[in-house]
Amino acid sequence: MELQNSTPRTPNNDEIDLIELLGKYISKWKYFAVAIPMCLLVAFVYLKFTPPKYTVSGSILLRSDDKSKLSSQLSMLSDMGLSVGQKQADDEIEVVRSKRIIGQMVETLGLQTQYFLKTNGGYKEQYKKTPASLTILPSLKDNLQGNIEIIIKKSGSEYQMEAEYKKPDNTETFSCTLSSLNANVQTPWGVFAFKANSNLAEGCKFKIVVSPYLSMVETYAQDINVELAKKESNVIKVSLVCANTQKGCDIINTIIALYNIDVLNDKNLTASKTAEFVDDRLRLISGELSSVEQDVESYQKSHNIADIPSQTKLVLESSTDYQKQMTAIEIQRSSVEWVEQQVKKPQTQYDIIPANLGIEDKALTEVIVKYDELLNERSRMLASTNEHNPTLLQLESQIKSMRNNIIVSIANVKQGLAIAKANLDGKNNTLNSKIKNVPTIEREFTEIKRQQEIKQNLYLFLLQKREENALSLAAAVTSTKIVDPAYISPNPVSPKRMMVMGIALLLGIFLTIAYLYVHDLIYNKVNNRKELEQLTSAPILGEVGLFKGKDRIVVKEGSNTPLSEMFRMIRTNLNFLLPLKQDKTILVTSSIAGEGKTFVAMNLALSLALLKKKVVVVGLDIRKPRLADYLHVRSSQGVTSFLTDEGLPLSKLIVPSQIHPMLDVLQSGPVPPNPAELLQSPRLEELFTQLNELYDYIIVDTSPIGLVADTFSLNRIANAVIFIARQDVTPKEYIKHIHEIVQAERLTNLAIVLNGVDFNAGYGYRYKGYGYGGYGDKKNKK
Question: N or C: which end of the chain has fewer CB within 10 A?
Answer without folding.
Answer: C
